[in-house]
Amino acid sequence: MTLLKVCGLTRRIDVEFIDKYADYAGFIIHSDVKTPRLLNPHEAKDMASVLSRAKPVAVVRGLELSNALELATRLDFPVLQYHGVVKGYEGGVNLAPVIEYTDYSSTVKAIHEYTGIKGIEYILIDAPKMGYRVFEYGLKIPLSIVEKVAGLGKVGVAGGIGPGNIRFIIKYNPYLVDVNSGVESSPGIKDWEQVVRVAKVIKGEGTP
Fold first, then answer.
1. Helix, strand, or coil here: 38?
2. Mean predicted confidence (pLDDT) in 99-108
3. Distance between CA atoms of 172 and 149, rounded to whole angstroms?
4. 12-37 burial, b if ≥16 CB within 10 A, otherwise e?
5. What does the alpha-carbon distance between residue 8 and residue 39 come to, in Å, rounded to a whole number?
6. How far is Cα 63 from Cα 108, in angstroms, rounded to an integer?
7. pLDDT computed for residue 208 by the predictor
8. Which stretches of 95-176 are DSSP H helices?
9. How many CA atoms lie within 13 A of 138 on its CB side?
């Protein structure tokens, strides 16, 4: 069954709620791109401590991998979702490398490179944070890439996914679906109804 990650959490009350539905909870603790979802690292650690079901994920962009791993380790995060060049990873915190979609061939090439690394939690295909395109059904990555990568192992997809388009994603049974802005009432504020609608479709319990 497809796993669900809810990312960009900023409020303890949202963390407590999504813990009932999500398999992963993402906290942005460092970013070189401005975002309203950026948390103080120690605040993120405190929020993550309330989770009982979902696995906490430290999301980092704009640091060297060694520094990102050190930060995640210091904060007791079991998974590092890393937006950057993966070089010299030797284990410790499980790694979830992010591939920003540009085209099919380079995406698949990167997937195969990362699949061979021991300690990979999942691989995430996401849209670029700046200069992304909008594809069918409001997605920020094309549906064709979702179809093509769904059978390549622990590969998740992200980019504009929400209640309005999750049904088009889930028919390909990707390993993981990552939602963020698509389940928000405003930046950083999760809309609980939208989270539930997405979760029900993923679990085959209803339509969005």
1. strand
2. 93
3. 9
4. eebbebbbebbbbbbbbbbbeeebeb
5. 9
6. 24
7. 54
8. 104-115, 143-149, 166-170
9. 10
- Tokens for 63? 């640091």
What pLDDT is recorded for position 185? 97
Q: Quick one: pLDDT at residue 18?
A: 98
207 token code pair? 């339509």
Structure-block tokens of residue 64:
């060297």
Say if residues 10 and 17 touch (Cβ distance below 8 Å).
no
- pLDDT of 4 over the 70 cut: yes
Residues with Cβ within 8 Å of 109's Cβ and at least 6 positions away in sequence, in order, are none
Which pLDDT value is given to residue 131?
A: 77
| Confidence at residue 207, expressed as pLDDT on a 0 to 100 scale | 57
Q: Which one, of 116, 124, 134, 150, lies nearest residue 24 by Cα?
A: 124
Mean pLDDT, to the nearest integer, of 111-128?
Answer: 94
Q: What pLDDT is attached to residue 151?
A: 87
Q: Which helix (H) or strand (E) holds 18?
A: helix 12-18
State which H helix or E strand residue 27 sits in: strand 24-30
Residue type, 97: P
Check residue 15 and give its pLDDT.
Answer: 98
